[in-house]
Amino acid sequence: MESRFDLMDNEVGGKFAKRFFNASLVLARALPKSTQELVALRVSQINGCGWCVDVHTKEAEAAGETAVRINLVAAWRESSVFTEAERAAFALAEEGTRLADAHHGVSDETWAAVREHFDDNEVAALVSLVAQINAANRLGVIVRNAGGSYAPGVFAELSD
């Protein structure tokens, strides 16, 4: 698959990417890196963004995640390797991503599970992460960014 357009290779796209990435730095302090990467991976799988799946698989590994846990994200409900907090985060991520598939959005049951395991700052970070990775997935899918070439840590140069 060939990319349609390089968003980073022009003034507007480059400026937007830097600011978009910098917004994620706020979240980095609120949630463990591995949780962020696994949630972003799950959302990216749902949205079919190959480039984002590549990014978050490799960043999860760089954050110390095992191959078993990374590989089982897509089947988290049928796996025994995730904590109850991680399961709540995955449920929130899925329901928050599949808005068109579920008219209710995030269920009360899922919200209660999230509130049981995460404090206010962590909840704000999770909700923001789900929104941000969904936006990133749409950027990647629209321009057809292919997975496979990402090197962990590349985004560090974008931070202020």
From TrEMBL:
Instruction: List, alphabetically, the InterPro entries matched.
Output: AhpD-like, AhpD_core, CMD-like
The species this protein was found in: Amycolatopsis albispora
For this protein, what is any one GO molecular function term?
A: peroxiredoxin activity
UniProt keyword Oxidoreductase present: yes
Coiled-coil region list: none
Its domain of life reads: Bacteria
PANTHER family given in the database record = 4-CARBOXYMUCONOLACTONE DECARBOXYLASE FAMILY PROTEIN (AFU_ORTHOLOGUE AFUA_6G11590), BLL7811 PROTEIN
Q: Which UniProt keywords apply?
A: Oxidoreductase, Peroxidase
Name of the protein: Alkylhydroperoxidase
Q: Does the keyword Oxidoreductase apply?
A: yes
Tell me the ranges covered by the Carboxymuconolactone decarboxylase-like domain, including all copies: 25-95
Give the NCBIfam families listed for this entry: ahpD_dom (TIGR00778)
